[in-house]
Amino acid sequence: DIQMTQSPSSLSASVGDRVTITCRASQSIRFSLNWYQQKPGKAPKLLIYAASSLQIGVPSRFSGSGSGTDFTLTISSLQPEDFATFYCQQSYAYPRTFGHGTKVEI
Amino acid sequence: QVQLVQSGAEVRKPGSSVKVSCKASGGSFRAFSISWLRQAPGQGLVWMGQINPGFGSPIYAQRFQGRLTISADESTSTVLMELNSLRSEDTAIYYCADSSPGFDPWGQGAQVTVSS
Fold this sequence. Notes:
The complex is a heterodimer of chains A (106) and B (116). Chain A contains no helices and 11 strands. Chain A is an all-beta fold. In chain B, the strands form 2 sheets. In chain B, strands 2, 4, 5, 6, 9, 10 and 11 form a 7-stranded mixed beta sheet that branches. In chain B, strands 1-3-8-7 form a 4-stranded antiparallel beta sheet, with no helix packed on it. Chain B is globular, with a radius of gyration of 13 Å. Chains A and B meet through β5 and β10 of A and β5, β9 and β10 of B.
């Protein structure tokens, strides 16, 4: 199975901060990397697919980059509604696997 | 607009089985690629398996092989997930999601509690 390693596991930030979360795959997954945001009690929401494509309806302050094994999710200016847990997920091979999550807190 | 609606919460005893349904609307059922995922309390997301109603056999994660059955009923546009030989570690919220390429949209989730 492809292992997905996210860092950090949690971070504290303020409104307006630029936030970066990284995700590393245990082998090359080319561009097959997706990012999700999950708020307590809710289903995850797809933010970015194929490493850098913004899902329809997702604010442009979210962006993704990377290829191969190293990927990044960036929030350019953190908003109050962005405090949540973020997960990366590879769609290159079965079984699909997720990172352990990054909790973004105030 | 594609929408996935899941059945409700379930409580089961260890050793029993559970079925959770996921009804799809807003698109061609045969074009869907529905995955099942779960999230134990305070834990991350785990992909369990996937079915493409239009073709092919389901794909299962090795860890659930032999206990998990995913099926599709085209007449009702419903995907069914059945998990057998339940144990306490199966207590989780179970989600269905369309998978192309990322998981979107998601069902609302169904709480499954395994307790004696």
